[in-house]
What we know:
A six-stranded parallel beta sheet has the order 3-2-1-4-5-6, with helices on both faces. It has helices at residues 17-39, 43-56, 63-75, 81-96, 106-117, 130-138, 163-173, 187-195, and strands spanning 5-8, 121-125, 151-153, 180-184, 199-203, 215-216. The protein has two domains: 5-16 and 103-226, Rossmann fold; 19-96, Transcription Termination Factor Rho, Rna-binding Domain, Chain A, Domain 1, CATH 1.10.720. The protein is globular and about 55 Å long. The protein is of the alpha/beta class. Helix 8 links the parallel strand 4 and strand 5. 47% of the residues lie in helices and 11% in strands. It is built from eight helices and six strands, in the order E-H-H-H-H-H-E-H-E-H-E-H-E-E.
Amino acid sequence: MTIKAVLTDIEGTTSSVNFVYEVLFPYAVQHLPAFVLANAQQPAVAAQLEAVRADSQEPDADVPRLIEILLEWIAADRKATALKALQGMIWAEGYQNGQLRGHVYPDAVAALQRWHAQGYRLYVYSSGSIQAQQLIFGCSEAGDLSPLFSGYFDTTSGPKREAASYERIAQAIDLPAEQILFLSDIVEELDAAQQAGMQTCGLARMGGELPGHGQVASFAVIDLGGF
């Protein structure tokens, strides 16, 4: 079956895990308290804070308590949609004022540009919010890569380790699952995409094994015609 679209993870796949844990997360930790205090009454922020109250089962939590909860979630790397949305807002300020630049591996940049030029449709699926995804590519060290992508998906499409999430994405892309290649560095995500009928390729940049899937150490050696 011919591949017509590529769906890629970000962290550990197109971009360094270290960028997320050593740059983005510390930036969010540093700026989250002041951001939430300053913007708690803004509708977009207030809606996410209400979601934090619901998710934490603390319906009466005040803003200082909500900040504590959010910082605890960051420390635990919790994949909470409300946290991801708030982090995205904080990072947006960092990108806009030039304090942040998105890391994308040069081999990923070159392959994505080549595939786009060849007519493949490119999509992103990450646990980070869609806004955060758009920022990392739109304000990358390699420039604005956002024109390469046809769409973005986050945890609002479902958990990344569940096949149903990939079925929803295939429906949204409007292609048979077998015409979509999913790229990730996490075997459980690759398993879920495979169960949904997608083609898969694992990125093992630092070595290791992703059993049950073809794997490469670089985007440069991925041959879309070989699937």
